[in-house]
Amino acid sequence: MLAVVHFYVDVIKEGRLLWDGGHALVETVDLQPRLRRRKAEAYFRDWYHLATGLKNGAEYHYQTGEYPLTLLNLHQMAEHLLHALHLVWSNYKIRTHELEKLTREATAFYSPILQWIDHATLEEVELFQLLEQAYVGVRYKPESFMVSQQQAEALLEKVGSLQRMIYHACLEKLNEFYPEQTGDELPSTAFLDLEHLKTHTLPHAELTLKKKALEHATLQIKEVARLGAVKERELEAALFREEAERQAKEQALKREEKALRRELKTRKEKEEALQRETEKEQKLEQALQEKERLESLLRERGIDV
């Protein structure tokens, strides 16, 4: 129903007349203060309740170390808070996810909100841009959307300050419409508190952390086992190579020994042959000497040789 109302409000504010059927549009009328507060209370209750749920998500993901998801929840928390501010003050919801646009549009009726995006340093500008990018980055480019713990903590504080500002601004406006509560109980403050998060672990986050620690330990054990198996295979391969090298050296030594034996045998055979030649020469020399002696003896006896 509210979407239909917003459509016709946009037609009146931004539409162009294409054809006039002669029927005048109904003039808007101001609601009675009590009815105005009741409607604004409903907006505040619904949108602040959603923002609180997103705050819980941001706290949980911060404590479990999932910082991109922390920023996605913070972005949505800030967006819901700003929509609550718009609806309570102006009874109108802008259709955008851009936090800066929502903030600047809100300055038309609540100027202090501008200080939330009034950045004093380049670091603050980059932080706000990171928060703006989280809406698309975490959903569609999770592999490249990187967030550090320090960035997450800075933005937790920043969105926490926005939450406090809008909560009190909406209460002021509700009381301005009508001083008494008209519907169900208003949302509790449940403000985002970074210091409390650092010192008190949420029960469900603690369980997740223990589960993650167990998974991490299991992965470490598996990795150690894998590395052990790799080392074992490397050791077996090294032993195999050493054994192969040893056998190759043994075979080489055997070949060298065999060659040396052949060489020694050849050398011995040569020595024996040389010795035989020497003995033969010696016998031949002795025979010649004996011949010469006999010839000399015969000549002495007057026998011609």
What does this structure look like?
This protein has 305 residues and is mainly α. The protein folds into two domains: 2-14 and 28-200, Four Helix Bundle (Hemerythrin (Met), subunit A), CATH 1.20.120.330; 201-278. It has helices at residues 2-14, 33-63, 67-90, 99-106, 122-140, 149-177, 194-199, 203-300. The protein is rod-shaped, with a radius of gyration of 51 Å.
Features:
305 residues; mainly alpha; Four Helix Bundle (Hemerythrin (Met), subunit A); 2 domains; 8 helices; disordered N terminus
CATH topology grouping of the largest domain:
Four Helix Bundle (Hemerythrin (Met), subunit A)
What gap, in angstroms, lies between the N and C termini? 161 Å
Are there runs of 5+ residues with pLDDT below 50, and where?
A: 1-5
Q: Note the overall shape.
A: rod-shaped
Main sheet characteristics: none
Query: What is the overall number of helices?
Result: 8
Question: Class by helix and strand content?
Answer: mainly alpha
Order of SSEs: HHHHHHHH
